[in-house]
Prior knowledge:
Layout: E1 6-10, H1 11-28, E2 33-37, E3 51-54, E4 57-60, H2 64-79
Parallel strand pairs: 1-2
Antiparallel strand pairs: 1-3, 3-4
Amino acid sequence: xxxxxxxxxxxxxxxxxxxxxxxxxxxxxxxxxxxxxxxxxxxxxxxxxxxxxxxxxxxxxxxxxxxxxxxxxxxxxxxxxxxxxxxxxxxxxxxxxxxxxxxxxxxxx
Length: 109
């Protein structure tokens, strides 16, 4: 997991909704930096829906499973190989096999 992923959970939201998400992330991604803060300055959100802050961005969902899926999808994106044409992409050079040619015995009629 890249060190650039930083998750923050609101303590109140953790108690109400997202404790299972926090526990699953700790178990499945032990190297992930996860903080629990008394307040993440998202007034009102903590009592409405499960949410977490990923690198300063609010990630919310209808239920804990939805939150876990969104967070996991985002982490998979961050760890996936770069796409062609994007920064960090390195083209894999493969040895080219010699092209097979067939020599026809018939000539054009």
